[in-house]
Design goal:
With about 180 residues, the chain is α+β, with helices and mostly antiparallel strands. It folds into 2 domains: about 30 residues; about 100 residues, Tetrahydropterin Synthase, Chain A, CATH 3.30.479.30. About 50% of the residues lie in helices and about 15% in strands. The protein contains 7 helices and 3 strands. It has a 3-stranded antiparallel beta sheet, covered by helices on one side. Helix 5 crosses helix 7. The termini are far apart.
Length: about 180
């Protein structure tokens, strides 16, 4: 009998389980959601309005656009692109030791202009090669000069082929080696 009493006493002595405390979820989750909402409203009201580069209305200033500007915006980017791929150019002063690998795309607005470019591919390649081979390696390696090189190439080709009417020049490959 004494043994039975010991067994009965041993059973109720189960260790207490340490389960998950639901008070943390009941208090913590709503508090977290309130914090998220506050951060959103603070960001939306103060930081975004004062951020640079956000478009603001100018009071009383209206800029009139010419008809050419309106036509260019209506067209957007040129609809036709003619590309000249993989030109290998020796920059000035490199004695053939360094190379420029260049692929150029020409943006034109009409199919007729693209056909003019296709028919005169040799003239276009010559103008590109002559313009780029006159430039030194230090000039060609400057990122700022790429835009002026594009303008120079477009001007030379537009002078040689007035019917081409090149709107944009794109470099799809520009690798100095």
């Amino acid at each position: 009998m004494a043994e039975e009493e010991v067994k009965k006493e041993a059973k109720p002595e189960k260790p207490k389980k340490k389960g998950f405390n639901f008070k943390i979820i009941l208090i913590g989750l709503p508090l977290f959601i309130v914090q998220l909402v506050l951060v959103y409203f603070i960001t939306a009201t103060f930081l975004i309005k004062s951020a640079p580069g956000v478009h603001e209305k100018t009071d009383g200033e209206h800029v009139e656009k010419s008809e050419d500007d309106e036509n260019d915006e209506a067209e957007g980017a040129p609809q036709h692109i003619y590309s000249v791929d993989d030109l290998i150019i020796n920059p000035a002063g490199t004695n053939g030791q360094r190379l420029l690998l260049l692929s150029v795309g020409f943006g034109v607005s009409t199919e007729e202009s693209k056909k003019v470019l296709e028919e005169n591919e040799i003239v276009i390649k010559d103008k590109i090669l002559s313009a780029m081979s006159k430039k030194s390696l230090s000039l060609l390696s400057k990122v700022e000069m790429k835009d002026s090189l594009k303008v120079e190439i477009a001007d030379k080709i537009n002078l040689a082929l007035p019917d081409a009417k090149i709107k944009n020049v794109y470099f799809s490959k520009y690798v100095l080696n």
